[in-house]
Amino acid sequence: MLTVGNMMKQNALKYGGKPAVIFQNKTSSFKQLNERANRLANAFRSRGYQKGDKVAVLMKNNAAYVDIIVGLSKIGVIIVPMNYRLVGREIDYILQNSDSRGIILTAEYESELDSIRSVGELDTVIVVGGTSNGERFDYEMFLQSASAEEPDVEVDEADTFYIGYTSGTTGKPKGVVISQRSRILTGMAAAYEYKIDESDVHLVAGPIYHAAPWIFLVMQIIVGGTLVIHETFEVEQVLADIEKYRITNAFLAPTMYSFITNVKEEVKAKYDLSSVRVLISAGSPLATKSKEDILAFFPGVDLHEFYGSTESAITLNIKPKDIENKERSVGHPFPLVDCLILDDNKEPVNQGQIGELYFKGPYLLDEYYKNPEDTAASFYQGYFSVGDMALQDEEGFYYIVDRKKDMLISGGVNIYPRDIEEVLYTHPDILEAAVIGIPHPVWGEAVKAIVVLRDGATMTEKAVIDFCEGKMAGYKKPKTVSFLPELPRNPSGKILKTSLREQYWEDEKTKI
């Protein structure tokens, strides 16, 4: 049976005292992890929790997250991982929408929980790191109150593993229902695609509540490798732990790679980074210049970039042998994934033409929770789409042109911001760039670039626009440029273009 619980039970016997999780200099073996997971599962069972009940999780990265992922999956209790940057009303919405019965959180978020109205509807509140509230449970005491024996619950691979909520940048977050089978198969295929096995040590530096770090965490548990978990992303801590624990592979979002490759040379020189063998990126497009920087920083590493989503896991992946000679491509379909590119009439486009990307495979969501309308709208004849535009070249390589919602139309011409951003990233003084459309009285929309400069660099609006001359068609050139100290991003590293559009759209509308 393809369930996390079955995999963990087997690996506890197989790997026993081998390190499974390292967090803040404390190590748990596979045997210890399995026993802690069993205790958590049995403690919830003693409170009447049954298969299908939901427990939300609100915390930064923590070793307890692995207990929870394994333990609750053993009894079919559905995990609802939450973005720890959410505030009261946003937390309240997810708790209500997901029908969560309990919550596990770290002490730093207790005050946020106290501010919401639905807290009274939760029958179990467990605090990692202790609690002064007598009605709540201390996490360690909760675990120790129960048996370490395997729980006697039949969990099927078709049962729901977790409900992951989308970032909600274009509306209310949607609950993405993911089965046990889906994520076990994703983990197995990822281990195959990225050549990961029990000898590997994986760094978890991205937020576990997000789909990609979750997937690679599960992958490493499945193969019997070791997880090194960081509470939050800190550049020098990443470099130090690569040396200390001989980390071999990591998933990092593009902004994380940017921070790493821009550290001062004397900082980089302090650490031996030679153990790193495989690096993986996703979350937003990895600019060509960023790829070059990563390969220069980690010589000889296998660098992969994949395209995926909360709903689909990994859809496309470009391998190291192609990443330098297939500029901007996200490669071929991930194992067992089938892709289509369709026009607005749901007809296949010709090779080289742009259309909406649809895909199907064993890693897809089951549905959007309590949202049949969006579920139906996202599927077409068994294929699923998140609304991204793509094309395929004559060798079968796929290219994500842009988000459908990010496309702008100027003078009746479709303009894809990523084309312009790729050019801006090649300027030595530009660290980050985002391109959006803003209102224009004649053309409908005009191209605007928002730029973050490297430390110590100075540029004018004219210099940025002049740099684009001859590197793109005239209609694509930015008409205006603004400079920011940093771009707004969600915790998974995606640039929040919705926030940028809201800000600059209103500014321009007042001028028209």
Descriptive notes:
- By secondary structure, the chain is of the alpha/beta class.
- The chain folds into three domains: 30-176, Rossmann fold (3-Layer(aba) Sandwich); 233-405, ANL, N-terminal domain (Rossmann fold), CATH 3.40.50; 407-509, ANL, C-terminal domain (GMP Synthetase, Chain A, domain 3).
- The protein is 32% helix and 26% strand.
- The chain is built from 17 helices and 28 strands.
- The strands form seven sheets. It has a nine-stranded mixed β-sheet, sandwiched between helices. The protein has a five-stranded parallel β-sheet with strand order 4-3-5-6-7. Strands 17-18-22-23 form a four-stranded antiparallel β-sheet, with helices on one face.
- The radius of gyration is 23 Å and the shape is globular.
- The termini are far apart.
Notable characteristics:
single chain, 512 residues, Rossmann fold, GMP Synthetase, Chain A, domain 3, 9-stranded mixed sheet, 5-stranded parallel sheet, 32% helix
Shape: globular
Biggest beta sheet summary: 9 strands, mixed
- From the N-terminal CA to the C-terminal CA, the straight-line distance is 62 Å
Regarding CATH, which class of the largest domain?
Alpha Beta
Rounded mean pLDDT is 92
Total beta-strand segments: 28
Number of helices: 17
Can you tell me the CATH topology of the largest domain? Rossmann fold
CATH-level-2 architecture of the largest domain: 3-Layer(aba) Sandwich
- Structurally, the number of domains stands at 3
Helix content: 25-40%
> What is the spatial order of strands in the main beta sheet?
2-1-11-10-12-13-14-15-16
Q: Structural class of the secondary structure composition?
A: alpha/beta
Uncertain ranges: none
Instruction: Tell me the strand percentage band.
Output: 25-35%
CA radius of gyration is: 23 Å
CATH superfamily of the largest domain: ANL, N-terminal domain
